[in-house]
Amino acid sequence: MVASHLEVCAAELAVGAEADAPLGSAQEFAEVVEHLLAGQRSISRALAGLAGRVWAGQANGALATVPALELDVLTEVLQAAANAVGYSADAIAESGPAIESMCESTAQNTRL
């Protein structure tokens, strides 16, 4: 349920960011980026947690009927995805000074 809600929210954000209608002020843009950054960090933790569950299921026998190679691959893929999303979050965080400058350099009624 939570994952499907996340998917719907992400889709709505994507549509809003791609639309021709103004997104809002520079400050509102900055707030969207902050929320996306927090979301990226949470997704990274979620993927790492899923990798950990697969690994634990292999270790404790809960996934004993699944071939070990498949579990190893799944664990590696989930961990790699967690790392990639984490790196994406780091990249977004690096934009902070540029976004701050944009907010300081534009009038409050400037719409993006």
Task: Please explain how this structure is put together.
By secondary structure, the chain is an all-alpha fold. The protein has one domain (25-105). The protein is built from 4 helices and no strands. It has helices spanning 2-18, 26-59, 68-94, 96-105.
In short:
This protein has 112 residues and is mainly alpha-helical. The chain has 4 helices and no strands. The model has no long low-confidence stretch (mean pLDDT 91).
Shape label: elongated
Q: What's the alpha carbon Rg, rounded to whole Å?
A: 19 Å
User: Main β-sheet: number of strands, strand sense, barrel status?
Assistant: none
Low-confidence parts: none
Tell me the number of structural domains: 1
Count the strands?
0
Kindly report the oligomeric state of this protein: single chain
**Continuous helix count:** 4
- End-to-end gap: 33 Å
Task: Spell the H/E element sequence.
Answer: HHHH
Average pLDDT works out at 91
Work out the strand percent: under 5%
The residue fraction in helices comes out at over 70%
Structural class: mainly alpha
Please render the helix and strand layout as text.
Layout: H1 2-18, H2 26-59, H3 68-94, H4 96-105
Helix pairs in contact: 2-3, 2-4
